[in-house]
Specification:
The protein is α/β, with parallel strands linked by helices. β1, α1 and β2 form a beta-alpha-beta unit.
Length: about 220
């Protein structure tokens, strides 16, 4: 295992991204962390560099002293929050792909992106279709390694609670004891588990090449090893 000297995270203000940032800052195998955000973070750490840009773009000059080889993207929204199908696609597809391209341009070789279980460009659901299109476009950029995290319903405390997600989490608790095997992919998974899985994979699979996908079932297995 080769430890990444530095990493870059886009989306560290969200549920998964916030946990990912905290885990990365505590991890002794990671020497430096770049956080790409639209607004300043409260986190203060000697190994954290905040790159603040309204368009979430970054250039080589900003990371020239310690170029990150590993990137993480935890960006995403819902139709309700975005306001329309077009608004959702602008974030879940266009923005994510643009950020991935920007990371590739500065020297990132391996990238880990949060997607969703059931993502497919041919899906009937607009949300899942957007996730599928995003996966196809990010895969075509040219990274040495692309890994998509495909969690089911997310649980955990957000900066702003989504009422529909909260209702789903409550409902699913009733069925958790019955969710085994393939059904684990649809069991609510805490954002911290997704974050821990992403970081664990990044540290373990430094020499792997290709495109990989990890569902909730895979992530539960990872943290229980």
């Amino acid at each position: 295992m080769k430890e990444p000297s530095s990493i870059i995270i886009a989306g560290s203000t969200g549920l998964i991204g916030h946990h990912l940032l905290n885990e990365a800052l505590k991890n002794e195998e990671i020497q430096h962390v770049y956080s790409l955000t639209r607004r300043p973070l409260d986190d203060i750490c000697s190994k954290l560099t905040q790159v603040i840009n309204p368009e979430l773009t970054i250039d080589k000059e900003q990371v020239k002293d310690n170029v990150p080889k590993v990137g993480f993207i935890t960006l995403g929204t819902t139709i309700k929050k975005a306001g329309s199908k077009a608004g959702l696609k602008a974030i879940d597809v266009s923005l994510v792909v643009d950020v991935a391209q920007s990371m590739h341009d500065i020297g990132v070789e391996r990238i880990y992106v949060v997607s969703c279980v059931g993502a497919s460009s041919s899906a009937f659901s607009h949300y899942l279709k957007c996730k599928g299109e995003m996966e196809e476009k990010v895969s075509a950029i040219g990274f040495k390694n692309v890994t998509f995290m495909q969690p089911g319903p997310l649980s955990g405390t957000r900066a702003k609670t989504r009422s529909d997600e909260a209702l789903l989490q409550w409902f699913m608790k009733l069925f958790n004891p019955l969710m085994k095997g393939f059904l684990l992919n649809y069991k609510p998974i805490h954002g911290e588990i997704v974050a821990q899985s992403m970081l664990d994979l990044a540290l373990r699979n430094s020499d792997s090449e290709g495109c990989y996908r990890y569902t909730s079932r895979d992530m539960f297995a990872l943290i229980n090893k």
